[in-house]
Amino acid sequence: MKIIPAPSTCITKEGSLKVTAVDLSAENYMSDLQKLGVRVSLCPSQFSPDNAKTDSQSYSLDVDADGISVKAGGEQGVFYAYVTLAQLLHNYSFELPYCSIVDRPRFNYRGYMLDVGRYFMPVENIKSLMRLCALHKINKFRIHITEDQGWRIEIKKYPLLTQKGSVRNGTNFSHKKHSGFYTQDELKDLVAYCKKFFIELIPEIDMPGHSRAAIACYPELSCFDRKLPVATHWGVKHDILCAGKESTYKFAEDVWDEACQIFDSEYVHIGGDEAPKTRWKICPHCQKKMREEGLENEEQLQSLFVNRLAKYLQSKGKKVMMWNEFSPTFMTDKTLIRQFWSSPAKDQTAIRKELSEGIEYVNSDAASCYLDLPEKTVTLKKGYLFNPFIEGAEKGLTGVEACLWSEYVPDWKKAQKLTLPRLCALSETMWTDIPDDKKEYDEFLSRLDAHCKYLKQFGYLIADYSDSLANKTRKFFSWLWFNRRPLHWEGLHNALDNAKVKRKFGKHK
After folding, report:
1. Are both 233 and 352 inside the same structural domain?
2. pLDDT value, residue 507
3. Which residue of 213, 229, 242, 386 sits 20 to 30 Å from the alpha carbon of 47, by its own alpha carbon?
4. Nearest 5°: phi and psi at 404?
């Protein structure tokens, strides 16, 4: 049947049920079910008793001459039954084929990440993305809310973070200022809005790297108290939080104290990637901390930083996520949930050994899940056929997340066209509980046209996937345009700046 993501099992029967057309709104799903005369009953532990996490999300949907009935493991399952029913009503013009659907999620963690650090996204656009996620049975929405190019979350103890840190004097596209941030009340409203769709809003506050916007506001957070501007262009910055000063840890704890009052999520994300140790190697504070702790190198110092912050957040009852790029086995807390943007190579035995011991992880492999990458690189087909399991660590996989980084996504129109229709394919990878080798891409495409028409009725913009799949010339130039990124990397600036810092402060090591 014409449903995305496809249900676990669906049996169609002869006959159909004509349903009176009504306006539907997912925000008022119970009212809509009542208007449609749907019989709803909760049946806990009936669908997948071996997995309590997903049982409350499971449901059955039956259409026959007696009408429509829904059984679900919990209220979330009722909502997902509604999502399926709403699609069917649209796709079959309110004349439903008799059918029996039994459905449950493949993974408990089905995520979408939006980077608002590089480019600020208005609240109404974020809510629209949340509704889109709900239509695809996605239950985690992670907001990457701090970056080198902008600090977007109001922290009352440190007002400069938004007064100054939310403004960049130029971008990859122009020399115009770009600014914006979310008040705590706005973020609390987003948390509440997510809950209407059974979505958990997860904050990512990146530390110790990707912190230039914070350092621009409070230079003492860095190793040498340098007065630096908020970053304007893309690229890894070498000025990161100083891991040798106790005041830095206090800042991190203060920020997360306020963030945890806003976000009541089970998960939090601390970033932890792309943190060059250039400054730490010559910083007297960092070197002193290493001697005091008996550390052998700066990688172990980052372990100390990450573990200490994670332990603090765990004391607040949080599950802590971090990117897998930084994963030294000798110190990192094994309870931290790894998020992979690239599957570990065969020769990365240390990481693979960790995973085989039961480390929990989320897979966001860039080749299939990075929606900011051009369609030539991350194709619709790759998302649909993506196998997220890492060999030897199948039990540790808790889910999949699609990521929209915004270095080259300056507006709402671009965000929609990069997200759709590729999120449709990834949602099926996240939800549909069938073996990967049983997937049929052509069959998925046969359902996609109707689904895109369904999404367009809500006003969503969708990339012309049929044209982009066929037109190799267009795909090539799209790829070439995207890969102008080195022009914005500021690599030469980093090299010159590193030399200047080393000449001025290196003698203090």
Report:
1. yes
2. 66
3. 386
4. -115, 95
